[in-house]
Structures are given as structure tokens and as C-alpha cells.
Amino acid sequence: MQSPGITLQSSSDSERAREGETSLEGHAEESSSALSLYDIRTRTPVSVLPALNYASNFVHIPCDTSTRLLEQFRNENLNYLPCIHIPPHVTPQELMQEKPFFWYCLTAVLTPNLIERESLFTKVHDTIYQKLVVETTPSMDLLLGLMTFMSWKVYCAKPFLNFYSHLLTGLVSELGINKAPRKDQSVLQGFNRAAGLKTEPAMKRTLEERRAVLGCFVITSSIASSLFKSDALRWTPHMEENLEILASTKECFGDELLVWLVRIQRLAISTRIGQAPDTRISEE
């Protein structure tokens, strides 16, 4: 009498076992696909990492504190590396809205509390990884934030400098601000001009982009010199043009200082390698 019951139970168990194997196989396939994007630090597949929302982390900062931090950055930090110009009329709220990651890094490097600062630095690392490695979405906001983070973070190890110097160089290359903007020379635009039709004007570099690429040159070349490496951002004729434009326009006091920093750095490089600075480098 018990044998039919035993047979039914065995059949049920075998079905559950097959379902378990199917579930495991599906999980294995899902895991193998997630291994292509894997966060080594947290041992977590990037596909399941929460989206980073760094713009909302500083809403709780009082208005007077935000103003004080911005004034400190303007009057103290930018006296050493004026890679960005923040007009006096720009408020912390406007800067937070236009350049959230830059504002995040600015606040992080100026936070006096050590524990809070290290926590913010960790979030900066995560954001850089998410935006550059996972999403691959370069932007001027990301570039300016990374420059700020590299310039005023208290370094703990030399590999940090070299690694982020490569990221900075790659970001400049992706944005293309180290080269002259592409002129509208397509065949279709040529036909439009010949037919008298309206064509879009060639894109021009902004002063913000010109300052940023020169600031990147100062940062990466300084790191390369201190680590005895040759991985600095390569000098191009377009960067020479940027230098001349900033020297002539002088929109702010920082432009003149940045021009001198670049010239001194190039002179130091030429002295180290034993030749005069060469501006005839191909932009290929």
C-alpha cells in the first residue's frame, strides 16, 4: 500500500530537482553575463549597482555654508590652479545645477571633517567609475570635477596619481578639446553652400574648454615629472592656440596665471629632456 505513495513522492521530488537545475542554469547564465561588468571593490555586478545621484547629496548644506565654500574655492584654491573661472555673480545653487559633479568634488575637497571627507571621496570614486567605465558618458562637468578632485585631494598612494592621470588624459581625448574643432567640410554641406542654402557654422571652443585643457596639461605633466614617467597630456598646436588666446583676452586674473603656469611647466619639461618646447606636434 505504501509503494504507490513512495512512487508519487519520488516523482514529485524529481520534478522539483529538475526545476532546481533549470533555475540554477538560468542563474548561471545571468551571472556569466553580469561578469563582463563587475565592481572589483564591492564584489558586485555593476548591472545591479544602484544609480548614483550625487546632485542630491548636498541639498542639506546650509546656504551660508555653501556660499563660504564657494568663496573659499574662488579666493584660495583657484589662486594655485585657475583651471576654471567662476564669475562672482554665480551662486552655489546655480553651480550645483549646472555642474553637479564639479560642485560635489569642490565640496568634498573642502570638507574639514576627515571622516566625512573620506566618505565623500569614496562616492567620488564610485561616480567616476560609473560615468567613465560603465556608462562612458564624458562631459565638461565630469572633467572639471576630476581635475578638482586630483588637484586638492590628500593623496594616500602614488598609484592613485598615475591611474587618475590616465583617466584625465582619456577624458580630454574623448571630449576632443585638445584638438581644433572639426570644420564643416562634409560633401552635403559643400553642396548646400554651393546652392546658397544655410549651413551650420563651425563650432568654436569656449574659454572654459581652453582653460580646462591647459589645466589638464599642467596636472598631468606635473604628475609625470614627479613620478618620472612620460604619460602627460600631449601638447598640440591647438593647445598653443588656446594659450595665446587666453594670454590676449585675459577675461580674469586667473587666465594670466594659468598661462604662466603652462609656460613654466613646458620650460621645465624641455629642460628635463634637453630640447626646446616643440609646438609642431601632429594632431592625428
UniProtKB/TrEMBL annotation:
Domain of life: Eukaryota
Signal sequence extent: none
Compartment(s) of residence: Nucleus
Main subcellular location: nucleus
Molecular function, one GO term: DNA-binding transcription factor activity, RNA polymerase II-specific
GO CC terms, sorted: nucleus
Regions of compositional bias (Polar residues) in chain numbering: 1-12
Location of region: Disordered: 1-30
Keyword annotations of the record: DNA-binding, Nucleus, Transcription, Transcription regulation, Zinc
Start-end of Basic and acidic residues biased regions: 13-30
Protein name stated in the entry: DNA, SC012
Originating species: Aspergillus oryzae (strain ATCC 42149 / RIB 40) (Yellow koji mold)
High-level lineage: Eukaryota, Fungi, Dikarya, Ascomycota, Pezizomycotina
